Amino acid sequence: MKDLTESQQVGKLHDRLSVSKRWREQIASENNWENLLEEIEGKYDVVLGNVQVPPINEMFAYKDSTLASLYYRDPYLAVNAKKDATIFSSYILEAGVNHMWAELKLKADMELEITDGLFVGHAWNKVGNNTKTSGSGDLLCITEDSIYANRVSWRDMFMNVGCKNPPKDCIWIAQRIYRPTDDVKKDYPKLAKRLVGSTYPSLDVKYMKNILYREDFNYTASYEIRDAHDRKIYTICDEINDRFLEDPREWPDWMEEFPYQFLSFHNIPDKPYPQSDVGPWEPLVKEKIKLFTMCLNFAKRWNRQMVIAKGSMGIQEKDKFEKGIEGSILEALSKGGDLQTAFKMLDFAPAPWTPVDCLVFGKYMAWDQSGTERASLEGEAGWRLALLPDGRKLRRPMTTPSAPGIPRRGPSFPASGAMRRMCRRWLLQTKSIA
After folding, report:
1. What tens digit of pLDDT does each residue of 309-353 get?
2. Helix (H) or strand (E) holding 361
3. What is the rounded distance in angstroms from the CA atom of residue 344 to the CA atom of residue 279?
Protein backbone atom coordinates (compact mmCIF):
# COMPACT_ATOMS: atom_id res chain seq x y z
CA MET A 1 0.00 0.00 0.00
CA LYS A 2 3.01 2.29 -0.36
CA ASP A 3 1.78 3.92 -3.58
CA LEU A 4 -1.69 4.71 -2.19
CA THR A 5 -2.79 7.89 -0.49
CA GLU A 6 -3.81 7.85 3.16
CA SER A 7 -7.50 7.94 2.24
CA GLN A 8 -7.08 5.00 -0.15
CA GLN A 9 -5.10 3.01 2.40
CA VAL A 10 -7.75 3.48 5.09
CA GLY A 11 -10.51 2.60 2.63
CA LYS A 12 -8.69 -0.58 1.63
CA LEU A 13 -8.28 -1.61 5.27
CA HIS A 14 -11.99 -1.04 5.94
CA ASP A 15 -12.81 -3.16 2.89
CA ARG A 16 -10.61 -5.97 4.23
CA LEU A 17 -12.38 -5.86 7.58
CA SER A 18 -15.83 -5.82 5.99
CA VAL A 19 -15.13 -8.97 3.95
CA SER A 20 -13.54 -10.73 6.93
CA LYS A 21 -16.53 -9.89 9.16
CA ARG A 22 -19.06 -11.29 6.68
CA TRP A 23 -16.97 -14.42 6.19
CA ARG A 24 -16.66 -15.04 9.94
CA GLU A 25 -20.35 -14.31 10.56
CA GLN A 26 -21.34 -16.83 7.90
CA ILE A 27 -19.22 -19.56 9.50
CA ALA A 28 -20.56 -18.66 12.97
CA SER A 29 -24.13 -18.92 11.70
CA GLU A 30 -23.54 -22.28 10.00
CA ASN A 31 -22.02 -23.75 13.16
CA ASN A 32 -24.40 -22.11 15.69
CA TRP A 33 -21.62 -20.62 17.81
CA GLU A 34 -23.87 -18.10 19.54
CA ASN A 35 -26.56 -20.72 20.28
CA LEU A 36 -23.99 -23.10 21.78
CA LEU A 37 -22.75 -20.38 24.15
CA GLU A 38 -26.30 -19.48 25.16
CA GLU A 39 -26.99 -23.12 26.03
CA ILE A 40 -24.41 -22.85 28.83
CA GLU A 41 -26.92 -20.51 30.49
CA GLY A 42 -29.73 -23.03 29.95
CA LYS A 43 -31.27 -21.25 26.93
CA TYR A 44 -32.24 -24.28 24.86
CA ASP A 45 -34.67 -23.81 22.00
CA VAL A 46 -36.58 -27.05 22.62
CA VAL A 47 -40.36 -27.06 22.17
CA LEU A 48 -42.89 -29.88 22.37
CA GLY A 49 -46.06 -28.78 20.66
CA ASN A 50 -46.53 -25.22 21.87
CA VAL A 51 -44.90 -25.71 25.27
CA GLN A 52 -41.32 -24.68 26.10
CA VAL A 53 -39.42 -27.65 27.51
CA PRO A 54 -37.34 -27.24 30.72
CA PRO A 55 -33.77 -28.16 29.75
CA ILE A 56 -31.30 -30.67 31.13
CA ASN A 57 -28.24 -28.42 31.01
CA GLU A 58 -25.58 -30.90 29.94
CA MET A 59 -23.59 -28.10 28.26
CA PHE A 60 -22.96 -26.42 31.62
CA ALA A 61 -22.01 -29.75 33.21
CA TYR A 62 -19.67 -30.58 30.32
CA LYS A 63 -17.98 -27.17 30.52
CA ASP A 64 -17.32 -27.32 34.26
CA SER A 65 -16.13 -30.93 34.26
CA THR A 66 -13.79 -30.31 31.31
CA LEU A 67 -12.34 -27.17 32.88
CA ALA A 68 -11.67 -29.10 36.09
CA SER A 69 -9.81 -31.83 34.19
CA LEU A 70 -7.84 -29.57 31.80
CA TYR A 71 -6.85 -26.65 34.00
CA TYR A 72 -7.60 -27.09 37.69
CA ARG A 73 -4.44 -25.22 38.76
CA ASP A 74 -1.47 -23.34 37.32
CA PRO A 75 1.35 -25.54 36.01
CA TYR A 76 4.61 -25.82 37.91
CA LEU A 77 7.54 -25.00 35.62
CA ALA A 78 10.78 -26.88 36.23
CA VAL A 79 14.20 -25.40 35.32
CA ASN A 80 17.19 -27.69 34.69
CA ALA A 81 20.80 -26.53 34.88
CA LYS A 82 22.82 -26.85 31.65
CA LYS A 83 26.48 -26.36 30.70
CA ASP A 84 28.17 -24.02 33.18
CA ALA A 85 25.01 -23.27 35.21
CA THR A 86 24.78 -24.61 38.75
CA ILE A 87 21.92 -26.52 40.29
CA PHE A 88 21.39 -23.81 42.89
CA SER A 89 21.02 -21.16 40.17
CA SER A 90 18.37 -23.32 38.46
CA TYR A 91 16.49 -23.55 41.77
CA ILE A 92 16.50 -19.75 42.08
CA LEU A 93 15.36 -19.27 38.47
CA GLU A 94 12.67 -21.93 38.91
CA ALA A 95 11.26 -20.17 41.96
CA GLY A 96 11.30 -16.83 40.13
CA VAL A 97 9.57 -18.18 37.01
CA ASN A 98 6.78 -19.83 39.00
CA HIS A 99 6.33 -16.71 41.13
CA MET A 100 6.03 -14.60 37.97
CA TRP A 101 3.51 -17.06 36.50
CA ALA A 102 1.40 -16.77 39.65
CA GLU A 103 1.62 -12.96 39.56
CA LEU A 104 0.28 -12.89 35.98
CA LYS A 105 -2.99 -14.43 37.23
CA LEU A 106 -3.70 -16.27 33.99
CA LYS A 107 -6.12 -18.85 35.37
CA ALA A 108 -9.29 -16.78 34.83
CA ASP A 109 -8.36 -15.93 31.23
CA MET A 110 -7.29 -19.52 30.54
CA GLU A 111 -10.66 -20.85 31.70
CA LEU A 112 -12.47 -18.47 29.37
CA GLU A 113 -10.20 -19.47 26.48
CA ILE A 114 -10.88 -23.16 27.10
CA THR A 115 -14.61 -22.41 27.13
CA ASP A 116 -14.24 -20.62 23.78
CA GLY A 117 -12.31 -23.59 22.42
CA LEU A 118 -14.92 -26.11 23.56
CA PHE A 119 -18.00 -24.29 22.26
CA VAL A 120 -16.77 -22.05 19.43
CA GLY A 121 -13.91 -24.31 18.38
CA HIS A 122 -11.12 -21.78 18.85
CA ALA A 123 -9.81 -19.10 21.19
CA TRP A 124 -7.39 -16.18 20.91
CA ASN A 125 -4.67 -15.12 23.33
CA LYS A 126 -2.47 -12.04 23.00
CA VAL A 127 1.04 -12.03 24.46
CA GLY A 128 3.64 -9.31 24.72
CA ASN A 129 5.45 -6.98 27.06
CA ASN A 130 4.81 -3.50 28.44
CA THR A 131 7.80 -1.21 28.67
CA LYS A 132 7.71 2.34 30.06
CA THR A 133 10.65 4.71 29.94
CA SER A 134 11.48 8.13 31.36
CA GLY A 135 14.00 10.77 30.43
CA SER A 136 15.87 11.08 27.15
CA GLY A 137 19.37 10.80 25.77
CA ASP A 138 21.89 9.67 28.36
CA LEU A 139 19.20 9.92 31.07
CA LEU A 140 16.83 7.50 29.32
CA CYS A 141 15.90 4.65 31.66
CA ILE A 142 13.28 1.92 31.89
CA THR A 143 10.78 2.52 34.67
CA GLU A 144 8.53 -0.49 34.08
CA ASP A 145 8.99 -3.72 32.16
CA SER A 146 6.39 -6.50 32.38
CA ILE A 147 4.92 -9.25 30.26
CA TYR A 148 1.25 -10.04 29.71
CA ALA A 149 -0.94 -12.79 28.26
CA ASN A 150 -4.61 -11.85 27.88
CA ARG A 151 -7.64 -13.49 26.33
CA VAL A 152 -9.13 -11.74 23.32
CA SER A 153 -12.74 -12.48 22.45
CA TRP A 154 -13.19 -14.39 19.20
CA ARG A 155 -15.83 -11.79 18.26
CA ASP A 156 -13.12 -9.09 18.14
CA MET A 157 -10.56 -10.97 16.02
CA PHE A 158 -10.44 -10.83 12.21
CA MET A 159 -8.02 -12.28 9.66
CA ASN A 160 -7.59 -12.40 5.92
CA VAL A 161 -9.75 -14.70 3.81
CA GLY A 162 -7.77 -17.64 2.43
CA CYS A 163 -5.64 -18.57 5.42
CA LYS A 164 -5.77 -22.23 6.48
CA ASN A 165 -3.54 -22.43 9.54
CA PRO A 166 -3.94 -19.24 11.59
CA PRO A 167 -2.00 -17.35 12.71
CA LYS A 168 1.01 -18.90 10.97
CA ASP A 169 -0.11 -18.31 7.38
CA CYS A 170 -2.09 -15.09 7.97
CA ILE A 171 -1.23 -12.05 5.86
CA TRP A 172 -2.86 -9.69 8.33
CA ILE A 173 -4.70 -9.93 11.65
CA ALA A 174 -6.93 -7.25 13.17
CA GLN A 175 -8.10 -6.83 16.75
CA ARG A 176 -11.17 -4.74 17.54
CA ILE A 177 -10.94 -2.70 20.75
CA TYR A 178 -13.92 -1.00 22.38
CA ARG A 179 -13.06 2.00 24.53
CA PRO A 180 -15.03 4.95 25.94
CA THR A 181 -15.25 7.67 23.29
CA ASP A 182 -13.89 10.30 25.67
CA ASP A 183 -10.73 8.26 26.23
CA VAL A 184 -10.23 7.82 22.48
CA LYS A 185 -10.61 11.56 21.96
CA LYS A 186 -7.90 12.25 24.56
CA ASP A 187 -5.49 9.84 22.89
CA TYR A 188 -6.17 11.15 19.37
CA PRO A 189 -6.99 14.89 19.74
CA LYS A 190 -6.54 15.69 16.03
CA LEU A 191 -9.63 13.65 15.13
CA ALA A 192 -11.63 14.24 18.33
CA LYS A 193 -14.28 16.36 16.63
CA ARG A 194 -15.13 13.58 14.17
CA LEU A 195 -15.60 10.91 16.85
CA VAL A 196 -19.20 10.49 17.92
CA GLY A 197 -19.29 6.96 19.31
CA SER A 198 -22.23 4.62 19.88
CA THR A 199 -23.63 2.31 22.54
CA TYR A 200 -21.70 -0.79 23.56
CA PRO A 201 -22.74 -3.79 21.39
CA SER A 202 -23.99 -5.89 24.31
CA LEU A 203 -26.08 -3.01 25.74
CA ASP A 204 -29.69 -2.91 24.60
CA VAL A 205 -30.81 0.42 23.12
CA LYS A 206 -33.93 0.47 25.32
CA TYR A 207 -31.75 1.04 28.40
CA MET A 208 -30.49 4.32 26.87
CA LYS A 209 -33.89 6.07 26.81
CA ASN A 210 -33.91 7.57 30.30
CA ILE A 211 -30.17 8.01 30.80
CA LEU A 212 -29.05 11.55 31.58
CA TYR A 213 -25.29 11.10 31.17
CA ARG A 214 -25.05 9.19 27.90
CA GLU A 215 -21.31 9.78 27.59
CA ASP A 216 -20.77 7.11 30.25
CA PHE A 217 -22.21 4.54 27.81
CA ASN A 218 -20.67 5.92 24.62
CA TYR A 219 -17.98 3.72 23.05
CA THR A 220 -15.81 3.83 19.96
CA ALA A 221 -14.56 0.74 18.12
CA SER A 222 -10.95 1.01 16.95
CA TYR A 223 -8.92 -1.61 15.09
CA GLU A 224 -5.26 -2.52 15.46
CA ILE A 225 -4.26 -4.15 12.16
CA ARG A 226 -0.91 -5.93 11.87
CA ASP A 227 0.21 -6.47 8.27
CA ALA A 228 2.92 -9.12 7.88
CA HIS A 229 3.74 -8.12 4.28
CA ASP A 230 4.23 -4.42 4.90
CA ARG A 231 5.60 -5.00 8.41
CA LYS A 232 3.32 -2.18 9.60
CA ILE A 233 0.80 -1.66 12.40
CA TYR A 234 -2.24 0.38 11.36
CA THR A 235 -4.85 1.93 13.68
CA ILE A 236 -8.27 2.92 12.32
CA CYS A 237 -11.84 3.25 13.64
CA ASP A 238 -15.35 2.64 12.29
CA GLU A 239 -16.38 6.29 12.17
CA ILE A 240 -13.51 7.66 10.07
CA ASN A 241 -12.97 6.15 6.62
CA ASP A 242 -10.23 8.43 5.25
CA ARG A 243 -7.77 8.97 8.10
CA PHE A 244 -5.63 6.85 10.41
CA LEU A 245 -6.11 7.43 14.12
CA GLU A 246 -2.33 7.60 14.34
CA ASP A 247 0.50 7.29 11.83
CA PRO A 248 1.35 3.69 10.87
CA ARG A 249 3.97 2.19 13.16
CA GLU A 250 6.84 -0.07 12.19
CA TRP A 251 6.65 -3.72 13.11
CA PRO A 252 9.47 -4.34 15.65
CA ASP A 253 12.45 -6.14 14.10
CA TRP A 254 12.71 -8.57 16.99
CA MET A 255 9.09 -9.70 16.51
CA GLU A 256 9.09 -12.41 13.84
CA GLU A 257 5.44 -13.45 14.16
CA PHE A 258 2.03 -12.18 15.24
CA PRO A 259 1.62 -11.62 19.00
CA TYR A 260 -1.47 -13.82 18.97
CA GLN A 261 -1.88 -17.47 19.92
CA PHE A 262 -4.65 -19.62 18.48
CA LEU A 263 -6.11 -22.36 20.70
CA SER A 264 -8.07 -25.19 19.04
CA PHE A 265 -8.92 -28.82 19.77
CA HIS A 266 -10.36 -30.20 16.51
CA ASN A 267 -8.73 -28.77 13.41
CA ILE A 268 -10.29 -29.48 10.02
CA PRO A 269 -7.96 -29.88 7.00
CA ASP A 270 -7.81 -26.79 4.77
CA LYS A 271 -10.26 -24.85 6.95
CA PRO A 272 -9.16 -21.97 9.20
CA TYR A 273 -11.85 -22.31 11.85
CA PRO A 274 -11.78 -25.60 13.80
CA GLN A 275 -14.79 -27.68 14.77
CA SER A 276 -16.62 -27.10 18.03
CA ASP A 277 -16.16 -29.74 20.69
CA VAL A 278 -19.87 -29.90 21.51
CA GLY A 279 -21.31 -29.08 18.09
CA PRO A 280 -21.51 -32.68 16.74
CA TRP A 281 -23.53 -34.06 19.69
CA GLU A 282 -25.56 -30.97 20.59
CA PRO A 283 -28.61 -32.20 18.56
CA LEU A 284 -28.56 -35.43 20.59
CA VAL A 285 -28.77 -33.40 23.82
CA LYS A 286 -31.91 -31.69 22.54
CA GLU A 287 -33.45 -35.04 21.60
CA LYS A 288 -32.60 -36.39 25.04
CA ILE A 289 -34.34 -33.41 26.64
CA LYS A 290 -37.43 -34.13 24.54
CA LEU A 291 -37.43 -37.83 25.47
CA PHE A 292 -37.16 -37.17 29.21
CA THR A 293 -39.87 -34.52 28.97
CA MET A 294 -42.12 -36.97 27.16
CA CYS A 295 -41.50 -39.56 29.90
CA LEU A 296 -42.37 -37.04 32.61
CA ASN A 297 -45.44 -35.84 30.72
CA PHE A 298 -46.63 -39.41 30.29
CA ALA A 299 -46.25 -40.08 34.00
CA LYS A 300 -48.09 -36.86 34.86
CA ARG A 301 -50.87 -37.48 32.34
CA TRP A 302 -51.40 -40.98 33.72
CA ASN A 303 -52.01 -39.43 37.13
CA ARG A 304 -54.20 -36.61 35.80
CA GLN A 305 -56.94 -38.52 34.05
CA MET A 306 -60.55 -37.50 34.27
CA VAL A 307 -63.44 -39.80 33.48
CA ILE A 308 -66.63 -38.16 32.28
CA ALA A 309 -69.82 -39.33 30.68
CA LYS A 310 -69.59 -39.21 26.93
CA GLY A 311 -71.08 -36.05 25.50
CA SER A 312 -70.95 -34.11 28.76
CA MET A 313 -68.12 -31.82 27.52
CA GLY A 314 -67.95 -30.00 24.23
CA ILE A 315 -64.92 -29.63 21.98
CA GLN A 316 -64.09 -26.14 23.28
CA GLU A 317 -64.29 -27.25 26.92
CA LYS A 318 -62.01 -30.20 26.20
CA ASP A 319 -59.53 -27.89 24.47
CA LYS A 320 -59.48 -25.54 27.46
CA PHE A 321 -58.97 -28.47 29.82
CA GLU A 322 -56.08 -29.92 27.80
CA LYS A 323 -54.31 -26.56 27.51
CA GLY A 324 -54.71 -25.79 31.18
CA ILE A 325 -53.60 -29.19 32.47
CA GLU A 326 -51.49 -31.75 30.68
CA GLY A 327 -53.95 -34.57 31.30
CA SER A 328 -56.36 -36.70 29.35
CA ILE A 329 -60.12 -37.17 29.39
CA LEU A 330 -61.64 -40.64 29.40
CA GLU A 331 -65.17 -40.75 28.11
CA ALA A 332 -67.43 -43.54 29.35
CA LEU A 333 -70.52 -44.92 27.62
CA SER A 334 -73.02 -44.47 30.42
CA LYS A 335 -76.78 -44.69 29.94
CA GLY A 336 -78.21 -43.63 33.24
CA GLY A 337 -75.57 -45.49 35.24
CA ASP A 338 -73.58 -44.14 38.15
CA LEU A 339 -69.88 -43.79 37.29
CA GLN A 340 -68.85 -43.26 40.92
CA THR A 341 -70.47 -46.55 41.98
CA ALA A 342 -68.80 -48.32 39.05
CA PHE A 343 -65.35 -47.06 40.06
CA LYS A 344 -65.91 -48.04 43.67
CA MET A 345 -66.77 -51.56 42.54
CA LEU A 346 -63.65 -51.73 40.31
CA ASP A 347 -61.46 -50.26 43.07
CA PHE A 348 -59.72 -48.21 40.34
CA ALA A 349 -57.88 -44.95 40.98
CA PRO A 350 -54.72 -43.33 39.56
CA ALA A 351 -51.68 -43.53 41.80
CA PRO A 352 -50.95 -40.15 43.43
CA TRP A 353 -47.85 -38.29 42.28
CA THR A 354 -45.53 -37.80 45.24
CA PRO A 355 -42.22 -35.98 45.79
CA VAL A 356 -40.52 -39.37 45.86
CA ASP A 357 -41.39 -39.84 42.17
CA CYS A 358 -39.62 -36.56 41.33
CA LEU A 359 -36.55 -37.63 43.30
CA VAL A 360 -36.46 -41.00 41.54
CA PHE A 361 -36.58 -39.31 38.12
CA GLY A 362 -33.83 -36.89 39.14
CA LYS A 363 -31.65 -39.69 40.47
CA TYR A 364 -32.16 -41.73 37.33
CA MET A 365 -31.21 -38.81 35.07
CA ALA A 366 -28.05 -38.11 37.09
CA TRP A 367 -27.17 -41.79 36.98
CA ASP A 368 -27.81 -41.98 33.24
CA GLN A 369 -25.65 -38.93 32.48
CA SER A 370 -22.75 -40.20 34.60
CA GLY A 371 -22.06 -43.01 32.12
CA THR A 372 -21.42 -45.50 34.93
CA GLU A 373 -24.66 -47.50 34.92
CA ARG A 374 -22.90 -50.80 34.28
CA ALA A 375 -20.23 -50.21 36.91
CA SER A 376 -22.90 -49.24 39.44
CA LEU A 377 -24.88 -52.39 38.86
CA GLU A 378 -21.76 -54.52 39.14
CA GLY A 379 -21.00 -53.17 42.60
CA GLU A 380 -18.89 -50.52 44.29
CA ALA A 381 -16.03 -52.86 45.15
CA GLY A 382 -15.90 -54.44 41.69
CA TRP A 383 -17.74 -57.69 42.49
CA ARG A 384 -18.70 -59.84 39.54
CA LEU A 385 -21.53 -62.33 40.00
CA ALA A 386 -20.02 -65.09 37.88
CA LEU A 387 -20.17 -68.73 38.83
CA LEU A 388 -17.22 -71.02 38.21
CA PRO A 389 -17.73 -74.45 36.54
CA ASP A 390 -18.53 -76.07 39.90
CA GLY A 391 -21.55 -73.79 40.13
CA ARG A 392 -20.85 -72.61 43.68
CA LYS A 393 -17.81 -70.37 43.93
CA LEU A 394 -17.75 -66.60 43.56
CA ARG A 395 -14.83 -64.74 42.02
CA ARG A 396 -12.69 -62.49 44.13
CA PRO A 397 -12.89 -58.70 43.67
CA MET A 398 -11.24 -57.64 40.44
CA THR A 399 -8.05 -55.59 40.83
CA THR A 400 -6.31 -53.06 38.64
CA PRO A 401 -3.00 -54.12 37.01
CA SER A 402 -1.25 -51.01 38.33
CA ALA A 403 -2.25 -51.65 41.96
CA PRO A 404 -2.56 -55.41 42.59
CA GLY A 405 -4.59 -56.38 45.61
CA ILE A 406 -6.54 -53.11 45.76
CA PRO A 407 -10.21 -53.52 44.77
CA ARG A 408 -11.31 -51.47 41.79
CA ARG A 409 -13.37 -48.55 42.93
CA GLY A 410 -16.83 -48.00 41.52
CA PRO A 411 -19.37 -45.21 41.97
CA SER A 412 -21.79 -45.04 44.89
CA PHE A 413 -25.37 -45.83 43.98
CA PRO A 414 -28.17 -47.54 45.93
CA ALA A 415 -28.06 -50.51 43.55
CA SER A 416 -24.43 -51.20 44.46
CA GLY A 417 -25.32 -51.43 48.16
CA ALA A 418 -28.13 -53.86 47.38
CA MET A 419 -25.67 -55.84 45.26
CA ARG A 420 -23.21 -56.09 48.16
CA ARG A 421 -25.93 -57.25 50.55
CA MET A 422 -27.03 -59.87 48.04
CA CYS A 423 -23.42 -61.05 47.64
CA ARG A 424 -22.98 -61.25 51.42
CA ARG A 425 -26.21 -63.22 51.82
CA TRP A 426 -25.24 -65.60 49.03
CA LEU A 427 -21.79 -66.16 50.56
CA LEU A 428 -23.30 -66.98 53.95
CA GLN A 429 -25.57 -69.51 52.32
CA THR A 430 -22.88 -71.20 50.21
CA LYS A 431 -19.97 -70.64 52.67
CA SER A 432 -17.59 -70.63 49.74
CA ILE A 433 -15.19 -68.01 48.40
CA ALA A 434 -12.89 -68.58 45.47
Report:
1. 777 777 877 776 666 554 555 666 656 666 666 666 666 565 667
2. helix 355-370
3. 55
